[in-house]
Amino acid sequence: MKPLIIGIAGGTGSGKTTLVDRLKEQFGEDISVLAHDSYYAEHHDLSLEERRALNYDHPAAFDTDRMIQDLENLKAGKTVQVPVYDYTVHDRLEQTQEIAPNKVILVEGILIFDNKALRDLLDIKLFVDTDADVRILRRIHRDVTERGRTLDTVMEQYLKTVKPMHEQFVEPSKRYADLIIPEGGKNTVALMMIMQRIAYHIEHGDIVSRQ
Fold first, then answer.
1. β-pairing verdict for 91-99 and 80-86
2. Antiparallel, parallel or unpaired: β 80-86 and 4-10
3. What is the mean predicted confidence (pLDDT) over 164-187?
């Protein structure tokens, strides 16, 4: 069975992770997840202060070529070793995480629709669309409580890179989406539609898959 590859894009704090979590809860071991954030480029040669100053919301911040290769290998039925990124130190760690091929592969990230080669590997493209005020509040809460950031640094980063990069790259990529979902995993109507499509694939295989 060819895997059903679903891309989930959207701005920071839009609800992508909530949607992924809801799908994982529903389908369990039939789903593998590939997160674009895991592929932030390594910067072992830079100091912590220098790493903090980098623009992490530009397409160049990611090793997307490696992600594409890993996704192609998963599609071919091969297990891959995915990088592990540590947000507290703004750098990639030495260890990797093993991701196995599966019936359904979720590809998640703010910029996954910006790269055509990556887009072309996706059978279904979902864009989670959430009000900017809600997104920034969620980002502040996440970065302060989970990633050890201060309120000042979160706000500085948002105004300096997150907001302008969202307007330049993330928002325009919405035009590539097959389905735009307001509020992500909290949108029960859209969630049920996606679950029905996934359940059909798991039961019937790739009969209606694009590729």
1. antiparallel
2. unpaired
3. 90
List, for residues 127-172, the tens digit of each pLDDT value.
Answer: 999 877 788 888 888 888 888 788 888 888 888 888 999 999 999 9
Q: Is the pLDDT of residue 211 over 50?
A: no
CA atoms of 129 and 170, how far apart (whole Å):
11
> In 3-state terms, the chain is what percent helix, strand and coil (to 5)?
50, 20, 30
Closest alpha carbon to 62 in 23, 96, 21, 112: 112
Which pairing describes strands 179-182 and 124-129: parallel, antiparallel, or unpaired? parallel
**Rounded CA separation 10/181 (Å):** 9
Instruction: Determine the Cα–Cα distance for residues 65 and 71; give it in Å rounded to an integer.
Output: 10
Q: Tell me the C-alpha distance between 203 and 185, whole Å.
A: 23
Contacts of 195 (CB under 8 A, 6+ apart): 23, 26, 27
Entry pTM: 0.89
Q: Which two tokens stand for residue 172?
A: 């325009």
Tokens of 105: 């592969």
Q: Which CATH class is domain 4-202?
A: alpha beta
All structural domains of the chain with their residue ranges: 4-202
